[in-house]
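So, is this right?
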Amino acid sequence: MNFSKGVARVSSSLRLGGSRAKCSSHGTTIRGAAAVAAVSGRCLGVRGGANRRLHATVPAAETPTSDTAAEKEASPVLSSLQAWMRKENMDCFIVPSDDPHLSEYASECFNRRAFVSGFTGSAGTAVILKDEALLWTDGRYHLQADQQLGKGWRLMKAGKPSVPTIQEFLAKHLPTQSRVAIDPFVHSASSVKALEKELGAAGISVAAIDHAGDKNPVDKIWGETRPAPPKSPVRIHKMAYAGETVKDKLAKIRKSMLEEKADVFVSGLLDEVAYILNIRGDDVAHSPVAIAYLLVTENGATVFIDEAKMSTEVEAEMKEHGVEVHGYEEALEAVRTLAKQGKKVWIDPERVNFAFANVVGEDDLIAKPSPVSMAKGIKNAPELEGMRAAHVRDGVAMVLALSRLERDVAAGQVITEVDIDQRATTARSQQDKFVDLSFPTIAGENSNGAIIHYSATPDSCHTVGRESMLLLDSGAQYEDGTTDVTRTMHFGEPTAEQKEAYTRVLQGHIGLATAQFPDGTPGFMIDAFARRHLWDAGLDYQHGTGHGVGAALNVHEGPHSISSRTANTTPLEPGMIVSNEPGYYKPGSFGVRIENLLEIVDSGISNETLGRRFYSFAPLTFIPMQKKLLDQTLLTSKELDWLDEYHEVVWTKLHKLVKDEEALAWLKEATAPVVRQP
């Protein structure tokens, strides 16, 4: 691959996130009881409702913008960036969501796009021109971006037929000889060729900012108010949960290096580094990772990290496994030095930033997928045991939180979305091995539930009452596993429209949960199982159906997913964890999502003629689904049987662990068989 100096590209997907993402994580991770206090507060009580029968709506005319630059006065931050562009003779500056490790969620000090635009969603790319600014984000965030974008911004609703990609827009609107600036540390190496090719055809060049002395203009404008880099201590991830030693993981990497004739392997993804080294940290909110790079050679390995984070115990553990500890800022120069020595350097171009690839000559660069990605995605036996145990404790916590919530709403208590967040966090924090949330809780009442990645705030959130429909998406990090679950519930009498929406989403959830598929099947081939019943009514949802989940690691991980995007051809394999979360969202009214995590298992069926085995799913999540929202006229007997059987397993797994009598009574009723309508 030709990684030309000073050139990078934003991929055609614009790194708008994985199959699905939660609200953006900001700030230092809050652990234990402190996490409970962080979500306390009251809010203004306003509500929306839904009364009509579910039907497919015809969208308004497609427009790429929510407002024009002329209608709004540019913010001081935007004006300062445009002044820098004029000074540097740049016609455009691209500000992605990414940090130097291409993380989905970034530490607060790297949230440049949010600082520049005011939009806090985890996925999106800002494009600054001399006289206007635009933000591209996908359908998960259109409503949120409409509400959050600052003055002088246009929202480009990526995925809409009339909305061009960033490359298409720039090629059309920038004159020949224009210069597009990027920070080489926040664009993947694989981004380079495409942007150079697409803009180069229009006579537009791409220039990488000189990063000597921290030259990113956003950081200069941010100044002293920019958050400091995190300093959280690194901790060892116990072998009882990891299931494999660091030495064994490094040996597997070196075996792959030998096969690819690589002298050096560079890892930049934070969860990948944490996985290889069996360490955890708190540098990114709700993601148990430490900011670091890792270099692996034939005879050694070096982790580049803020050495102040490494205790004597952790350093001794690294030394035992042949891993040296060097300063974080030394990583790029170490790769440059090895490249100058003629070493063959293996860099995953999708997972390592362009700055690192750019210091390796074309002849010495091995640009291939990381050998770690699949190993991390397929959990070993102790990792699976930890995930199963964590989900049982998580189920107990949610039974306590949801049962109390239903009782209090029925009693007429004033409860806000922020209160619900706090209650779920409190219940989880009381469980054994709790570390943190796995993402910011999404608690959306009525119209807020239609905002796919809604985040409640004390001064704008809704109260929950007997006419409320609530979408609650939440999860936790435990020492032994990571959870992610969504439940939708109504506190009074749901409308026919709400019942139909919920039931069609549930049918899709059941369709995927009961799917059986042959080995070698990628996620996109079974995505329609979750959408079929919505499609029958002319409906759909604008996010993926399933994402991978780390074992006591990031709540989103690859390499697999379940979505309509055909680019991900990674086959679904036994030992992988994937979410199952179809949804329906009616803007201004309500939202529905039902999510369980699933373990991919061997179904025990094989076809000798085809020479293939078949796989299926086993549930990891054990939390009741609300029966009052069912429209039984849509459900088959087989689908009702599935729900009864699922609830029987939930009862069996949890009832001996729920010590609160009222919560136990609620669980018994919630998991009782559905009363069949004649």
Q: What stands out?
A: The chain has 20 helices and 30 strands. The longest helix spans residues 381-410.
